[in-house]
Design goal:
It is built from no helices and 27 strands. It is mainly beta. The chain has a 4-stranded mixed β-sheet, with no helix packed on it. Strands 12-18-17-14 form a 4-stranded mixed β-sheet, with no helix packed on it. A 4-stranded mixed β-sheet has the order 20-27-26-23, with no helix packed on it. A hairpin with a 2-residue loop joins strand 8 (83-86) and strand 9. The two termini are 46 Å apart.
Length: 287
């Protein structure tokens, strides 16, 4: 490779046997007077993932400093039989663990790692975060709120009685709009052909949890626990039951609002009310 002028170019190498096998190399040419700014840090939007077989998650890399000369990165997996990665998109293949590595291509050696744990294809496992849903009349809620963080596939939502509530398109996929007091069902048809149905009750206007608040993050050491007490806004007599889940039980578990640190890493704990109002709490665990 001979540097001719400043700029960036891609060098491609392709086998001539008709197999289509190829490799590429990104080349950045600097002027002699232009100092090179190396990459010093890469921050991923998640340092650990818990996925079911077939699950997907897109990792995003923030390259620092912002004025680094070459901010290109490459993605690699430590075990393609467990999880693959392409341009940051992780696909869970089979049960096991793997590390996804994001490496700067400026020669600095700077990298970031996300640990991935894949569990079996849970055909019979409940996906929705709520066993039943209770909303007030004239309420609109994003149905993506009912999904765990690991699930990124498509969902087809249907309501048993559309005179009580309807599903309409939204920027996040679909949202539910309640119109009449009554009881019906809400069904989710998942991309892997799983289906789950929960009871949906529409109460008089204002007779459901209208707001949920909680701290946005906690930091713990392995073995430590913290109790989260969310603020629940609802009129007297409304069921204030909350449901909890964690994105990675290897990092932190949660039960009735008590978060316990299990391993080094980061995860998110979700708390959701029957109305679909939810909050996510970022949990960072150090050794």
């Amino acid at each position: 490779v001979i540097a001719v002028g400043t700029g960036t170019a891609t060098i491609n190498c392709t086998a001539l046997d008709g197999s289509g096998v190829n490799a590429s190399c990104m080349v950045t040419v600097l002027s002699q007077s232009e100092p090179s700014v190396p990459v010093t840090n890469i921050i991923l939007n998640s340092s650990s993932l818990a996925l079911h077989e077939g699950g997907r998650f897109t990792l995003e890399a923030t390259v620092l400093p912002s004025n680094a000369t070459n901010k290109n990165v490459e993605w690699n997996t430590s075990n393609r039989n467990v999880a693959t990665v392409s341009n940051g998109e992780v696909i869970a293949v089979s049960e096991g663990t793997a590390n996804i590595t994001c490496t700067a291509l400026d020669g600095s050696g700077t990298r970031a790692i996300c640990s991935v744990r894949v569990t079996g294809n849970a055909q019979n496992e409940s996906v929705l975060l709520l066993p039943r849903m209770v909303v007030g009349r004239a309420t609109t809620i994003e149905l993506s709120n009912l999904l765990p963080l690991y699930y990124t596939g498509s969902v087809n939502w249907t309501v048993g009685n559309e005179s009580i509530a309807k599903v309409i398109p939204s920027k996040k996929g679909s949202k539910l709009t309640s119109t009449t007091v009554g009881s019906t069902t809400l069904t989710a048809q998942f991309a892997d052909n799983r289906q789950q149905t929960i009871n949906l009750t529409v109460m008089p206007r204002g007779q459901a949890v209208s707001k949920l608040t909680a701290k946005s993050s906690v930091k713990l050491k392995i073995g430590q626990s913290v109790t989260i007490k969310p603020g629940v806004r609802a009129v007297a007599g409304v069921d204030r039951t909350l449901y909890w889940s964690t994105s990675d039980s290897g990092v932190a578990t949660v039960k009735n609002g008590v978060i316990t640190a299990k391993g080094v890493g980061t995860c998110r704990v979700l708390v959701i009310a029957q109305s679909g109002k939810r909050r996510a709490i970022k949990v960072t665990v150090k050794g």
